[in-house]
Amino acid sequence: DARLCAELPDLASCESAGATASDGPHEMSAALGAANAWLVQIRSAISALRDLPLWTLGQDDLLQLTRQVESTIRSGFGVQVRLAGELHERGVADMLDARSAAHLLHQALNITMSDARGRVAAAIAGLPTETLSGDTVPPTAPELVPTIDAGLVSDRHAKVITDCLAKMPDALDQPTRTACRRTLLDQAGQRDPNGLRQVADQI
């Protein structure tokens, strides 16, 4: 609500400070402080949801809430993808003597290599990148991250999609690639990851 938003730090002011890899400690701590404040609010909301008297909900409301929570939790994967993308783009793994960004995530977060590679792959496919000259390169799968952000697909759905896209031959024309991406994203909203993999295998 408005009161809650007023209590949170102004993220726009942090962005305008230009908190990048080359910034000094003041700008970096401002961005991190803002992020930590948001995380406190998220944890508080999750705690409140855990304490809800679920037994008071009718079956329709209970199912609706189950879907809403699933979609909201899924949308958090979009943050994980962006963090993985930032680690990858900056070459943080090289600085810390890790073999790759996926290996760094695997070691730092105790997640499987498959999950770590999935986050990096989603970032590479779904987020724009910047060249050394400052030009922005659009993502190869621009629909992917907005779909993740909307909570419409899970991390496992995203991995099936990026695995399929990675296997497409270089000679494949762009309209066909676009049609395949859109088919996968559409089917991801209707099938579980195993069912989506069957679609991917047919593609």
Give the class from helix and strand content and strand pairing.
mainly alpha
Strand percentage: under 5%
Rough outline: globular
Q: How many strands appear in the DSSP assignment?
A: 2
Query: In this structure, how is the largest beta sheet organized?
Result: 2 strands, antiparallel
Uncertain spans: 1-22
Order of helices and strands: HHHHHHHHEEHHHH
First-last Cα distance: 45 Å
**Radius of gyration based on Cα positions:** 19 Å
Count of alpha and pi helical runs: 12
Average pLDDT over all residues: 88
Percent in helix: 55-70%
Q: Strand sequence of the main sheet, in spatial order?
A: 1-2
How would you portray this structure in words?
Helices cover 68% and strands 2% of the residues. With 203 residues, the chain is mainly α. The protein has a two-stranded antiparallel sheet with strand order 1-2. Helix 7 crosses helix 8 and helix 8 crosses helix 10. The N and C termini lie far apart (45 Å).
Short description:
By secondary structure, the chain is mostly helical.
Key descriptive features of the protein:
disordered N terminus; 2 strands; 203 residues; mainly alpha; two-stranded antiparallel ribbon
What does the secondary structure layout of this molecule look like, with pairings?
Layout: H1 2-7, H2 11-16, H3 25-50, H4 59-75, H5 77-90, H6 92-95, H7 101-109, H8 113-126, E1 129-130, E2 136-137, H9 144-149, H10 155-166, H11 174-188, H12 193-202
Antiparallel strand pairs: 1-2
